[in-house]
Amino acid sequence: MLGSVVLLIRTLQQTITQMTTNNPGAGGQQALQVVVPGVNLPTNQLGYFFLALLLSGIIHELGHAVAALREQVRVNGFGLFVFVVYPGAFVDLFTSHLNLISPTQQLRIFCAGVWHNFVLCVAALLLLFLLPVLLFPVYSTGGGALVIDVVQGSAADGPRGLAVGDLVTSLEDCPIRGVSDWSSCLSHLSHNPQTGYCVPRASLQPSWAHGRPFKRLDGSMDCCSNKSLTDLCFYYSPDQSGGGREYSCLPVRKMVSGSRLCSTDDDCVSDSEHQSSVCVTPSLENQTRFIRVAHPPHTHMLFVGYPPHLQYAVSLTNFVPRFSFLHLDLPVFLETFCKYLLSLSGALAVVNSVPCFALDGQWILNALLEATLASVVSDPQRREMIGFFLLLGGSALLAANVALGLWMVTAR
Question: CA-CA distance, 50 to 56, in Å (whole number)?
Fold first, then answer.
């Protein structure tokens, strides 16, 4: 209960910080967020959301029922309901039996829902981590990131792009063993200077062959004024001293598809014994990168743009089917469902632990006060008054989080 109150206070502080600074990321990543289907919950994820929410609610209420039976309290019934669009569950206990048992026994019953949600979180977390082991006979991991979806019309779409079923193994010289490597490699490439490529010096064309180089608005230079989809402007050092820059418009796929990475001309000294090579670097706008995506046995996909755009254009999974008849989306379904189950069951545990009217926290707090303060505060009315003010504070805290969370999601 104390941890839930601290978590709600922290979430409220983060929400207020975001509201006052007009910066969505100023308050950091929130642990709790109000979920509105179709607004901050993608419509293609609604099935996961409602199924996980229903299962979490059923396990929560079954926890109350099992604990009540253990404490010799009769269970009148159990059922399901739908509130607006959100599914839920309830359990009806015999009130007379409940009032006859001790406050400690009541605590076991009232806390059982939260406890079962916590156990469900642990089970979902274990399944999430053990999924590669459980699926090992039919799905392999660690060999790359498998493409399961490509956004139509995106930078990764097209005949020379990525397709469903392709296995991505590297981004430039950054190896890809799974989805996490894909994200970390893209982040590394976007935050580091553009790498160069070793090409034969004799293949360089003078810049005037395609028109004079001109300066872009951000100060970078472009020497391919014909807006070709196959050529790209590169800069290099015209002499061994490294002073000054020369520009050349080159056919990208022909020149750098199989070239070695470099930072200076010295990295290309041993590239060939028969012809000298030079390190050429794409001349691009700020934050734009040229990236070679390896997905054998196909030729490299060549990407020019902002790296996060490539990340959003492709959906990947760690699991590669060992047999052709296996569906690519089965591990994705299990993995996504476990994440939703972990989040929603944990959220139910947190919210029901808060001392708030009409939630488990109200009955937990009342039983707790009766079990601990009966010998200190002998007057039952005083104990009820203490509980009332604590419930009032917890209810206000939860209501403020929900109200401001809804405003942040919908109004902004």
Answer: 10
- At 27 the pLDDT is 53
pLDDT at 29: 66
Active site residues: 61
| Residue 222 β-bridge partners | 214
Pair of tokens at residue 4: 């839930």
> What integer pLDDT is reported at residue 127 of this predicted model?
97
SS (H, E, C) 56-80: HHHHHHHHHHHHHHHCCCCEEEEEE
B/e letters for 124-154, b = 16+ CB within 10 Å, e = fewer, are beebbeebbeebeeebbbeebbbbbebeeeb
The phi-psi region of residue 231 (left if phi > 0; otherwise alpha if psi is between -120 and 50; otherwise beta) is: beta
Q: Which residues of the chain have pLDDT under 50?
A: 210, 271, 274
Residue 205: the pLDDT is 65
Q: Determine the pLDDT at residue 102.
A: 95
Q: Tell me the Ramachandran region of residue 292: left when phi exceeds 0, alpha when psi lies from -120 to 50, beta otherwise.
A: beta
Residue 310 CB coordination number (10 Å): 23
Instruction: Please state, in angstroms and rounded to a whole number, the distance separating the CA atoms of residues 191 and 316.
Output: 22
